[in-house]
Design goal:
Shape: globular
Number of strands: 0
Radius of gyration: 14 Å
Largest sheet: none
């Protein structure tokens, strides 16, 4: 089951966030308020998932988990940059 969630998260991060919110306490354990996961769902879903994994599995963002969060930030930035480039190409 965890491998299936990882595959869904790589292909559809917002769907993975929604399923984690719906069926588990994974996001609630990482974030004390609902504001940050909602903002993460809208703007940076890969980073939100990486931070939640770091907080649940390690208890903090350090070591290899910091690298995972940085990769999440880069993945989010690349998706935003790629969509802006595609939008310019169409116009």
């Amino acid at each position: 089951m965890p491998c299936l969630v990882v595959l869904i998260a790589l292909a559809f991060p917002r769907l993975a966030l929604f399923l984690l919110w719906l069926f588990s306490d994974y996001l609630h354990n990482a974030y004390q308020t609902v504001l940050w996961p909602v903002l993460g769902f809208i703007f940076m879903p890969f980073t939100t998932l990486a931070y939640a994994a770091a907080m649940n599995e390690n208890g903090g963002v350090s070591g290899i988990w910091l690298v995972l969060v940085i990769i999440g930030v880069l993945a989010d930035l690349s998706t935003h940059g790629g969509s802006a480039k595609a939008r310019r190409r169409v116009d």
